[in-house]
Structures are given as structure tokens and as C-alpha cells.
Amino acid sequence: MTTKGAQRGAVTEGAEKAVRAGRPVASSARPVRAATARPTSRLRPEHARRHNRALVMQALYRAEGLSRADLAREVGLTRVTISDLVADLIAEDLVIELGLRPDSRPGKPATLLDLNRQGFSIVGLDLSNNSAFRGVLTDLDGTVKSRAEVPVRGVTGMEAVDAAYRLLDELLAGAEAPVIGIGIGSPGLVDLDGTVVQAPNLGWHDVPLQQLVSERYDLPTQVANDANMAAQGERTFGGASADTMLIRIGRGVGSGLVIGGHLVHGSGFAAGEIGHVVVGTDGGADCACGKAGCLETWLASPRLEANLAEATDDAGRTAVLREAGERLGIALGPVVGALNLGEVILAGPHDLLAGDLLEATAETLRSRTMGELHGDLSLRMTALGRDIVVLGAVVTVLTGQLGIS
Amino acid sequence: MTTKGAQRGAVTEGAEKAVRAGRPVASSARPVRAATARPTSRLRPEHARRHNRALVMQALYRAEGLSRADLAREVGLTRVTISDLVADLIAEDLVIELGLRPDSRPGKPATLLDLNRQGFSIVGLDLSNNSAFRGVLTDLDGTVKSRAEVPVRGVTGMEAVDAAYRLLDELLAGAEAPVIGIGIGSPGLVDLDGTVVQAPNLGWHDVPLQQLVSERYDLPTQVANDANMAAQGERTFGGASADTMLIRIGRGVGSGLVIGGHLVHGSGFAAGEIGHVVVGTDGGADCACGKAGCLETWLASPRLEANLAEATDDAGRTAVLREAGERLGIALGPVVGALNLGEVILAGPHDLLAGDLLEATAETLRSRTMGELHGDLSLRMTALGRDIVVLGAVVTVLTGQLGIS
DNA sequence: GTTAGTTAGTAAAGATTACTAACCAACCTC
DNA sequence: GAGGTTGGTTAGTAATCTTTACTAACTAAC
Q: In this structure, which CATH number among 3.30.420.40, 3.30.70.1450, 3.30.465.10, 3.30.980.10 belongs to the domain B119-231+389-402?
């Protein structure tokens, strides 16, 4: 190891020690507010190469069984260049040849290619559940190969980090193919460096989780907010469009926004935090945050379940669910209108959300926003179920390491 | 002229004729909804060069009086490459040498460079005003060199297009430096090709304004929604941050959103259309759109002025303004929260907006959204006054033609 | 005045990347 | 089997940025 390596080790040591001792780590000096947009970086030949390489992978990811000639047409590069790129990818085992195209047509038969989907693994973690950290090991398709859980009820601080380590240890030990990276969806505010600025439930403040994990396992690591991960998961695996909002309802209410195909971070990395926005102008229940009528007071699952329990008959339960849905619609109206969203997706307890609540939200949204100006709005439940966050985490690894999105 | 050129001319003819005859033009067949994100294009050497060239221009734009060596440090390319790029730019007269750096320090004195800010002109048009189309001619700094207006009260359809032509004729005739492009802020829905999908006030449906203007004047032309133009103007000339919402209040209420430095278009090019979002849960005045309690019923300047006229004393007028401000705050709350906006900017009649209304909006926003999660929100009037749209249009030309944003 | 050190800018050669042109291979149709 | 079509490779070229090495022009210190 060079001096540089040793120094990096030392930095990690310091960070871990500081977290364990409850001291702020170096990164806490960084302001929460995003830095003013630095100019886009210069473009060198190798950057162009990486970009084109990612285009090839993306094309292969979406449609397996393309030939080099197909790729040339799809991506817009020449067959020569594609062959060159593909040769690199095959040398790295990221792409494999499937053999000749079976169908019969004029000309030399094509050699079909595909991503080596089974040849690599990705680890995805979901730290947003209060009772257990959940994790999966998938192939490049996002197909779950194994699962693991670690109970964390009441666990905070460095203990919680250790719990994540145990989960990762278990998943990595079971990997049968090389792991290309680790994705972690964490609750709370996460900055662009993968530092958890704050996550009250886990007692984390300025925990440089990405740095800790990537150095401990020597693997590329992506850390982001759980709802943002969920939004990216839905975009890649759930077929969500380029302008989508994903609402996550659980103990709290959060959301992830994809606008023009890009994840929205917000000026303080707090984009999507809509749980404590006040809804409507007719009061509402008191909220833990000190305000009254926050979205969470209607929609967070503990509150919703309590309200349901109070209802005596089906009609009462329907009314509770419809009111919650209406409140969500009222809150989302301005967002849907301002962003001209084409799609809103709900993730959370299916039995609570999928029926009357969803319907009431859709009706409210349409009646409060849709004019002749706006097109259709699609409101639906996630297609990914409970795995939405872990799969989103897998997507960030696919994107970060292979350029696939 | 080649066959290709003739063909282009023919297409224009058809479009103009169709518009004049009130028939739909070819482009109307295009769906309003944005196409599914086509994969990012391949990157060839010349694209990289263009990108790096834009970086150089952008650095010079922000800070005049940089040397080649300064640029190399700033942009991250080598001095050699910068010299090469600068030589190109000087050959095109886009960059000029200012002479030697005056201060005294070791080493060879630097030759200072600057954009040739006075050497080129840009035309910006604002078609959003009901009584007159307004236009300006500026230098590359956005400094207004001349102004012009054409009355258009009640003018619609191809007559309105002709009015824009007259305005352009006048401005272009007065240009003393070569014009690098034309920017036009239009009311209504404008797609990415610069076709005005619909602008009821002007009686426009699928008017390919960008195509018409660029072919008539043989100049690069940018057409976009007026509020979007305003947002871009405020971002470049008004110092707005990378996450900003600009609210435009006039005959109606619209907005332009910049998220992560990028303009938001929305799935149907209707992003920012918040005028007909219902505000609050306690009713409101009937709106022309058929709903009740739309944002416009409180904020559109005709309504606001009518309400003010009804008030008998200062207290009453303050109450009217505060209520309008509160309604705006209520509508913006979910948007500010979901996007974690750091900045909201108001543009419109200064006497109506700048006092009680603005204050009430700020208070409402803070009380309904701000938690420990969110940073400070800055709410202010535009710094650009009535020129905000034309200057925004100028910015789009700077961005589109020179890569400056 | 002389020497050393620093900074700006340029020149030449090398590496990367993608392109064009030309080719062979392997299939189809006739 | 001839001719046409499609897939993929080889060889050479153009564009771009880098590295290395140079000259020019200045300050600082003796």
C-alpha cells in the first residue's frame, strides 16, 4: 500500500471512531445547503468513451439479443466502433455472446449479444423499516437471489451502522457471482456524498455511511434517501415515466421525485419531505412537529390504523380512507399542477392504500387540478411491493457502475 | 440553394399558409405528451470539443479578464488545449484580447481575454402582454441597446404572428452588431420544438413559431413559454439559485420552475401552469375554468384590483392583499416542501405584490412547511422588473447558441 | 548586472477515439 | 452457381486532448 492508501485508511478510522464516540465527523463541517452549481466538468476523450459504452450497455439492458449491427443502428455509432466497445465489454465479462440469431433472413447471420446478467451480483439495503434492516442480493436484472434481515428495533448510532455491516456480511458471503456494488436506502436526509446528514429514528447525524461502507468492503457504494431510492426503483423496474412522483406511506410520509428523468435533490437535500406540509385550510389533528393538519396526521399508517379502529362499520372505515385520500389529493394538487406530472405512484401498506384511498386521491386530484391544459394523470400503486427500496438501491448501483438507468 | 434548402422553404410555405388559413399544420399530428425519453445521444469528438468550448465561454462570461492560464485552471483542461480553443474563438470574433494584465507579479505577464460582449446582438421578445408585444435588442451581457413595441390588443392568429414579424423587423433593422439569435417568450403551451401548442389569448393552436421565425430571418430562434423564459432570465441575470420557482402574476397566474439548474417542462409541456389549481378547503370565488377557488380567483391582477377597489380603507386593502398572499402561500406550500425549494421569486405589478402580499406569502409558507428539515426559504420580487421575459428570452439564445447559462 | 525562480504561452509528438473505405463471411433468392 | 444482402473485421485517417519540452518575460535577491 502506498502512503495514499494508508492515509485513506486513517481517515476512515477517524470517521468510525468519531461516530462510535458520538463526536461529529469531519464532514459535518460541510454546509447542508447544496454548493452553487459548479460548472459542468470538461469532456475528455475517455469520458466520451465511457458515455458511449454506457449507451451500449443500456441498449443491451433494455433489449437482450441485439447484434453488434443492431447496436450500431440503435446507438448511432458505426459498426466498427460498436465492435470495439463490445470487445472491451466482453473482455470484462460484462457482455456475452449468445450465439447466432436463429431466424432466417438474407445476409450473414448476426451474433447476438446480451449483458452477462447472471454473471454479477448487486447488494441492495433498505434501512427505512423501524423493526429490521432488510437486504437483498440480486443479479443485474434485479431478480432477487437471496434475502436477509437484521432486527434493529430501538438500535441507534454506531450500533445501527454495525447492524448494517452484519447484514452486508451475510449477503456478501452468500454471493455466488462478483458483486459490482452496494446500494443503501436510508431514512432521513442524505447528501450527494452519501453522508446521512440526519436520520432521527436511527440517531444518525452526519454519518458518512457511503465512505464507511465503501472502505470497509472495498466496493462501490451508493447511499441515498429511501424514498428517492424507491422512485428510481419504480422508474427502472416499475415502468414509471420520466416525470413521476412516488409517495411512500409508512410510519411517516415521504416522497421521491423524478423530473425530466432526473432525481430531484432539493436545495437542502430535503426534496420529497412532504409529511409535514399542512393540508387544507380547515384545521386538523395536532402533529408531533408542533403544527396542526400536517399530511402525516391523516396518512401515516399508525394514525390511519387508529382512525380505522375507531370506525364501527364499513361505511365508517371507507370514510376514513376516503378522507385520507382526499387530503393526499389536496396536498398533491399544487405539485402535480406545477410540475405537470404524468404519473403519481403510491407505495406502502396495500390493504390501506389500494382501494378507497387511492380512488379518493385520484378523484380529488382531478377535480382540483385537471384542466384542458393538463393531460391524463395516472395514479397507481407501485408494482414492486415491499422490495421497492432495495430494488431502487440496486438501480443506483446499476446506474453508478454501469451507466444503466 | 441546394435541393435541401428548397425543400425547407417549401415546408415553411406550407406551414405559413396553413396557419393563415386556420388549418392545422403538420406538426399538430405530434402528440402533446413528451416522447418517452430517448436514450442520450452518442458522443463524438466534435461534441466534446463543443462542450469544452462552451465551458471556456461560460468561464469568460462570468468573469471577464481571465488569461488562458486562468481558464486552464478554471476549466480543468491544459493550457495547450485552452490556447487552441481560444484561438478558434478569437478567429470567430467571439473572444477578444484585452492586453496585458496590469498588476506586477513574477513571471510572464498574462494576456487577458474577454467575450466580445459588444460585438454581437441578441433579440428578445415578450408576447405575453395583452396590449402590446414588446421586444429588446441587447448585447451579450443582456444590456438593452434598444426597445420596440407593437400594439396587439385583440389581434389573434396569423395577424399576431405578423405583429411579431413587424417587431422583429424593427429590432433587427436597428442592430449595429451581428445578431446571433432570436428568443421569444410566448404565452400558452410551447413544446420543445418551439411550436405554440395552444395560446388561447392569441388564438394560436399548433403554430410552429420557431420554425416560422428562424426560416424567415435565417437566424437561430428559441421559443418557450413566457414564465419559463422569466425563470431562466432570473437565473442568469437575477442571481436565482439552481432550485427556484418564479411566479408570474398578471392577467393570469403562471410559473416557471428551475430544478437542479434545469428548466422543468412537464409531461405535457404544461409545467408551471398553477393558475387553476384549487387552493384550500374552504371554497372560493367561481373561476372561468368551471371550478371554484382557483389560485387565479385570488391573485390574477384584475381580480385583485377589483377586490382592492371594494375595500373602503387601508385596513381593508391590507386584508385583501394579505389574503391573496396567504392563498399563494397555501398553494405553494406543497410545492416548496416537495421540491425543497430554496428560493421563490415573484414577478408582476410591483405595487400589488411587493408589500403585504409578499409578506403574507412568506409567513404562510414558513408556517405551513418549514420544519427543522428545511433550510431557509428566500421569497423576493424579481430583480429584472418588466424586462424579465425579454431578458429570459435573451438567455435562451445565449444558452442555445453559445452554451452560456 | 547577474543569477535563480516563476508564470504564460507555444510547439512537437503521442495516445485515444471514432470515422470512412474496403474487405471477407455467410446467408438468401433466383 | 450468380447476384444480392447483411454482419463483422481490417486498415488507414481525422479530430481531440495530453505530455513533454521549449521560449518569453517578469520578480527577487545577491
A: 3.30.420.40
